[in-house]
């Protein structure tokens, strides 16, 4: 948001004897702010207009409120009239990593994340693959596919469903399916900062590398944090936890994203995978540091 210049305040105090409703200078500045489409500037004009000419403050605030309402209605109409794929956004990444824990190698990773945001529904899809060979021997092989639909019954609150498939024999399991449903809440929701929290019951079905099978009820919690530090730099933090009587899991990914050119960005991330009771011979924690190129679309 651009700060209103200090020299503008005297202009607000001037010309108050013209139009008995809204002084011409205030009206001109309000029109310019609305024309720019910047809500921060409009709010600033309303703030100083009330101080400069209290008599017209309510009318200035009403014009700003009507403009916001009309803008929101147009945005909602655009969403309703859009096709399914018009609202799909996402990014794909490809890069390398250095891992420690059960494996200590250098390898490649690829991931794609898709998100469709509508008025009542939000859909998120994530696919990820890590693969490494060292001297002809596979030393890391992890695949993840996750889908989450959200039904927004409030401006901030929503119901979620979550389905996830994992395969990571170096963490001790060949297949693991996790299903969950619960309540989510957007605790912070601004243009530059967001924080979504989720909590609900879950069911997990795991087939370990030794062929044993385990099915358990669990509790799932997650957070999705994003902060735009500047126009080209942002940080994200995604974490989830499945807590149960048997093996509990905590997954976390911290990332720094820096825009390079156009839709191309550089991403540096640190991931952690914790298994409370892994099979004999396996470590509880794997960490992975990655550097990747990201394409937004």
Detail the topology: elements first, then pairings.
Layout: H1 8-13, H2 24-36, H3 39-52, H4 54-81, E1 88-100, E2 106-117, E3 121-134, E4 137-151, E5 157-168, E6 173-189, E7 193-208, E8 213-228, E9 233-243, E10 249-261, E11 264-275, E12 285-296
Antiparallel strand pairs: 1-2, 1-12, 2-3, 3-4, 4-5, 5-6, 6-7, 7-8, 8-9, 9-10, 10-11, 11-12
Helix pairs in contact: 2-3, 3-4
Could you characterize the architecture of this molecule?
- The protein has 297 residues and is α+β, with helices and mostly antiparallel strands.
- It folds into two domains: 8-81, no CATH class; 85-296, Porin (Beta Barrel).
- The chain has helices at 8-13, 24-36, 39-52, 54-81; strands at 88-100, 106-117, 121-134, 137-151, 157-168, 173-189, 193-208, 213-228, 233-243, 249-261, 264-275, 285-296.
- Strands 1-2-3-4-5-6-7-8-9-10-11-12 form a twelve-stranded antiparallel beta barrel.
- A hairpin with a 4-residue loop joins β5 and β6.
- α2 (24-36) packs antiparallel against α3 and α3 (39-52) packs antiparallel against α4.
Q: Determine the oligomeric state from the structure.
A: single chain
Number of strands: 12
CATH homologous superfamily classification of the largest domain = monomeric porin ompg
Main sheet properties: 12 strands, antiparallel, barrel
CATH topology of the largest domain: Porin
N- and C-termini, Cα separation: 26 Å
How many structural domains can be distinguished in the coordinates?
2
CATH architecture title of the largest domain: Beta Barrel
Strand content: over 45%
Q: Give the class from helix and strand content and strand pairing.
A: alpha+beta
Strand order of the largest sheet: 1-2-3-4-5-6-7-8-9-10-11-12
CATH class of the largest domain: Mainly Beta
Outline, from the CA principal axes?
A: elongated
Pick out the low-confidence regions. Answer: 6-19
Percent of residues in helices comes to: 10-25%
* Arithmetic mean of pLDDT: 86
- Number of helical segments? 4
Helix and strand sequence: HHHHEEEEEEEEEEEE
Query: What does the radius of gyration come to?
Result: 25 Å
